[in-house]
Amino acid sequence: MGRGHIISLRILFSIFTPRSLKATAFYYEYKNYNLINYNMKIIAHRGNDGIHRENSLEAIINSLKSKYTDGVELDIRLTKDNKLIINHDPFYNGNYINHTNAIKLQKLGLNTLEEILNNANNNKIIMIEVKVDKKDIKIMSKKLIKTLNKYNLNYYICSFNYQFIKYFKQFSNIKCGLIISVKINNKYLSNNFDFNSINYIYNKKIPNKETFRWTVNTKEELNKINKNENIITDYSLNMYKIIKKKEQF
Q: Other CB atoms closer than 10 Å to residue 219's CB: what's the count?
């Protein structure tokens, strides 16, 4: 073997030293780490699709059909005649929902939970936030379980009301989670429920379980949460694009 061959072998050997191989392996692993951990679920807050009124049938179904969402979040309340109506606030057009019959609220433009479920036809997450007073916990649980059992869909039930989730969990195998903020329910951070729904600004150590962060609407807010958590957002398409760009790192 000539001198030129020896020099070539030395150069080749120096390229593949343990240090360079380790660096190459680290880079490959780091890239794949980002790809794996940015596989977070995107949930449309109140069904927001950017077109229709939040919590409306049109917005929720449109978001469920969208390629850039993994599910929707919606709010339910109990009416005077014990129907489950979709609305975030306790009042709608001057009517206190708990003191108003469902038929009147429907004429005003609100939808019942059954109307939503009748039109849902895929396995995406339907996250139902239950707004309920202490006095209505039992009837709400009974009505909700009866309604959900009519449809074979992917439900996640959550609430700020710890006592409701605790009670509901006794009678159903449906996934249940507590909603937690900086000032509400933080003492229940470690619980026996299936998931937690936590405000994105909550920065204390959280249990290792399925977690949804709300309401994440910007790149800056996304950067504040763990990459293996999921997000609830008002802007599903925008957040989808931001996450996809991060995956390309």
A: 14
- Phi-psi domain of 179 (left: phi exceeds 0; alpha: psi -120 through 50; beta: other): beta
Cβ of 228: how many Cβ atoms within 10 Å?
A: 13
Burial of 248 (0-12, 13-18, 19+ CB in 10 A): exposed
Alpha carbon distance 234, 48 (integer Å)? 6
User: Letter for the amino acid at 153?
Assistant: L
Does residue 71 come out as left (phi exceeding 0), alpha (psi in the -120 to 50 range) or beta? Answer: left
| Residue 124 CA to its chain's centroid (Å) | 11
φ, ψ at 247 (rounded to 5°):
-65, -25
Domains of the chain: 1-37 (no CATH), 40-247 (3.20.20.190)
Q: What is the pLDDT of residue 249?
A: 59
Nearest to 153 by CA among 112, 116, 117, 195: 117
Q: Is 54 helix (H, G, I), strand (E, B) or coil?
A: coil
Whole-angstrom Cα Rg for the chain: 24
Residue written as token pair 């293996």: 228
What is the distance between the alpha carbons of residues 5 and 64, in angstroms, rounded to a whole number? 64
Q: How do residues 191-240 score in pLDDT, each as one tens digit?
A: 999 999 999 999 999 999 999 999 999 999 999 999 899 999 999 999 99
